[in-house]
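Holo prediction. Input below; ligand is fe (ii) ion.
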Amino acid sequence: MTGDLFGLPPLPGLSSCEALVSAAEERLLIAAIDATELAPFRFQGWEGKRLTRSFGHSYDFDRGRLEVGDPMPDWLLPYRERMAGFAGLPAADFVQALLIRYDPGAGIGWHRDRPAFEHVLGLSLGAPAVMRFRRRMAAKFERVAVPLPPRGAYHLTGEARHGWEHSIAAMAETRWSITFRSLASPIGRPANADAPDGNMI
Ligand SMILES: O=C(O)CCC(=O)C(=O)O
Ligand SMILES: [Fe+2]
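Structure of the complex:
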């Protein structure tokens, strides 16, 4: 575990870990994600290029509210345990799992994760990527770029989670990710607290 993000300027609230899973586990996880029915991310009638599937509590961007979907499959649970351990938090707090496949040309636009969630844990598989962070400071944006190496994990909380937007540029090669999120409060927040503040497409 490191807070220094491979030598880049630290972003308070962001910590990362270079190899949370082995190459063999990475292959199994990619196969398990590909064996799961994924669908293009939907946002208020728009379709994104990345393919996603969530389990447990999920935020429905079309309806603008938190919903409870299918339970997490068993193969995800040991990884939820390991990632929560890396963050020093109880695994059971992570009530949402999100699987994403970014094929070439797919990325994720500038956004903050929905306020219904608090801690965000991410695991990167496949092609390396860069997570870009920005926040508006007076007239210009302050920016930080954080490498997301395959098999590495990151934990977003505090300032990095709430004070900055993040995005991933369109991928040239396929990347898969697994994200676990905890709820901001035991019952989440009202849907009307969740007005979108970024382009999720
Ligand atoms: O793919 C990732 O690691 C990040 C995904 C993300 O930012 C999100 O789903 O909110
Ligand atoms: Fe995000």
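The first helix runs from residue 23 to 34. That is the main takeaway for now.
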